[in-house]
Amino acid sequence: MADSASDARLRACGRAVMLSNHTMGDVVENYSDAEEGAISRMLEAELAFRDSNRRRRLLKRANFPVPKTFEGYDWSAVRLPPRLSREDVTTCAFVRKAQNLVLFGPVGTGKTHMLVAMGTVACSMGMRVRYFTTTELVTLPSEAKRDGTARKLMRSLERTDLILLDEFGYVPVDRDGARLLFHVIDASCERRSLAITTNVDFSRWGAVLTDDQMAAAIIDRVAHHGQLVVFEGESYRPRHALMRSS
Q: What does the pLDDT read at residue 236?
């Protein structure tokens, strides 16, 4: 019979693949060490396969526009608040605390890259993530009404651990879109994390939403348990353009 540590690992694997205690007890009591070892390796391989598949599904469901990671990420333009470390960002520790992040700064300074890289890390940790541009999110209600999936959409968002909202403020939001945005943010408060990119100062959110009261309510909920990450400097796109004037 194998040692107690091997037995414990085997039983843990059995529970993870939903085998009964009776079956695993029979294996531990009646199978040889070599047989137990083979079964344990088989179960561990099955668990690794399931885990890999689940992470792939999570990445697909997140619907990122392009793959992004933190490898080689340029932090020189990023100013983090005192209570948020770089490790908090790169390990998505803020998601476990249901905190919000607002990534604020000029176009082209790495906000979307950070947003998607955080989402990728969260997926790799088994978290459920959804990515939207603001325009995509606020046009969902009319589309969902047409095909009857509005309730399904909201249930899906309610089961999400991290909602990524990109490009807030790039285009104005109509009243129906503002209501949806408020509903998503209000339903997420203290339950899940939001990360929002914007180049619009809080004082101008009312103009984007065409409703100062709605903007104030949204800002209040985003700022609650929220952190502001400021991006400074010029856009990296011209700096890294493939073709430059001589």
A: 53
